[in-house]
């Protein structure tokens, strides 16, 4: 009889693509999923929903705490169906305050800091219970839907190339990088750019962190929300000093919150130097003239 009761409500679940890499999009499935509940009996059913989200790749899960119920039941007419897609208050059964997880503290902290779920193959399942009791009414395991979450690769800095020298005579240097590499469907990418001096004996990574987080070390450029993957130094920016070494890093993010970028969107750091004013300038890419230098 218990198994029979567990098939009184049939659930089908569909997650609306593109599949978000951000955990908060699954806290309330309103607009993110379509859940169809079909009552196979001749009685009206009042139900509540519980669910789970499992990362099979990393063996991680979050699931609704047993017994959770929303402020009001979902009413399914006898022999009828109810489709949930935009109903508030009944699709938030995976909200942080209602779930339990097997993720350790470090994983939870990383998710909290970045808002991003780990990459991998996910399965979401939804079950229907009697609103006024613990009885499972849907099929064992509920309605499930599997999908993958895979991050785009961060930008690659293309100019200046790591380890190169920029001419001191180039007063408005150009900084370029690639867009994130991967499936960017539905994404609107914006960039952050940090360029900062690297002092003698300083780790370039430490210089970038100090500049980005605290604007220490007199960073030359700290730009946010750049719409394109190129930036030319402007007259109002600080000048680059001849003979100094600089570190550069680009960060990419999707303002639509649909596409995650690995490494928190941060590129590898590019380190370059600015030449001195007495560095020979070779015109037109030709070779430097040979022979004695005549001092007029």
N-end to C-end Cα span = 107 Å
What string, H for helix and E for strand, traces the elements in order? HEHEEEEEEHEEEEEEHEEEE
Radius of gyration based on Cα positions: 28 Å
The major beta sheet can be summarized as: 6 strands, antiparallel
Helix content: under 10%
Which class of secondary structure composition applies to the elements? mainly beta
Which consecutive residue ranges, at least 5 long each, have pLDDT under 50? 282-296
Number of helices: 4
Shape: elongated
Strand content: 25-35%
Mean pLDDT: 88
* E-strand count: 17
Structure described in brief:
This protein is mainly beta and 296 residues long. It is built from 4 helices and 17 strands.
Structure description:
The strands form four sheets. Strands 3, 4, 5, 7, 8 and 9 form a six-stranded antiparallel β-sheet that branches. It is elongated, with a radius of gyration of 28 Å. The chain has helices at residues 2-5, 24-27, 105-114, 204-214, and strands spanning 9-15, 33-39, 45-55, 60-64, 74-76, 81-84, 99-101, 120-130, 143-149, 157-159, 165-166, 174-177, 189-197, 221-226, 230-232, 245-254, 270-274. β3 and β4 (60-64) form a beta hairpin. It is 10% helix and 34% strand. The relative contact order is 0.16. The chain is built from four helices and 17 strands. With 296 residues, it is mostly beta strands.
């Amino acid at each position: 009889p218990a198994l029979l009761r567990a098939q009184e409500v049939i659930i089908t679940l569909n997650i609306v693509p593109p599949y978000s890499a951000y955990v908060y999009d699954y806290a309330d499935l309103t607009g993110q999923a379509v859940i169809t509940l079909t009552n196979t009996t001749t009685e009206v059913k009042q139900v509540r929903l519980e669910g789970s989200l499992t990362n099979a790749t990393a063996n991680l899960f979050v699931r609704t705490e047993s017994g959770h119920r929303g402020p009001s039941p979902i009413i399914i007419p006898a022999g009828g169906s109810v489709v949930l897609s935009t109903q508030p208050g009944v699709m938030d059964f995976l909200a942080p305050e209602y779930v339990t997880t097997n993720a350790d503290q470090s994983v939870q902290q990383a998710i909290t800091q970045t808002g991003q779920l780990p990459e991998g193959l996910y399965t979401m399942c939804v079950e229907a219970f009697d609103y006024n009791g613990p009885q499972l009414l849907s099929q064992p395991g509920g309605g499930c839907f599997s999908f993958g979450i895979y991050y785009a690769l961060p930008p690659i800095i293309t100019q200046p190339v790591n380890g190169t020298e920029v001419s001191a005579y180039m007063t408005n240097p150009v900084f370029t990088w690639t867009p994130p590499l991967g499936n960017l469907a539905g994404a609107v990418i914006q960039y952050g750019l940090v360029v900062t001096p690297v002092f003698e004996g300083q780790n370039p990574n430490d210089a970038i962190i100090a500049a980005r987080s605290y604007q220490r070390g007199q960073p030359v450029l700290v730009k946010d929300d750049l719409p394109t993957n190129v930036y030319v130094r402007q007259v109002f920016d600080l000048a680059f000093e001849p003979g100094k070494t600089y570190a550069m890093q680009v960060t990419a993010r999707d303002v639509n919150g649909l596409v995650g970028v690995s490494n928190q969107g941060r590129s590898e750091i590019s380190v370059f130097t600015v030449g001195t004013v007495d560095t020979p300038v070779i015109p037109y890419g030709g070779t430097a003239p040979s022979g004695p230098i005549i001092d007029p």
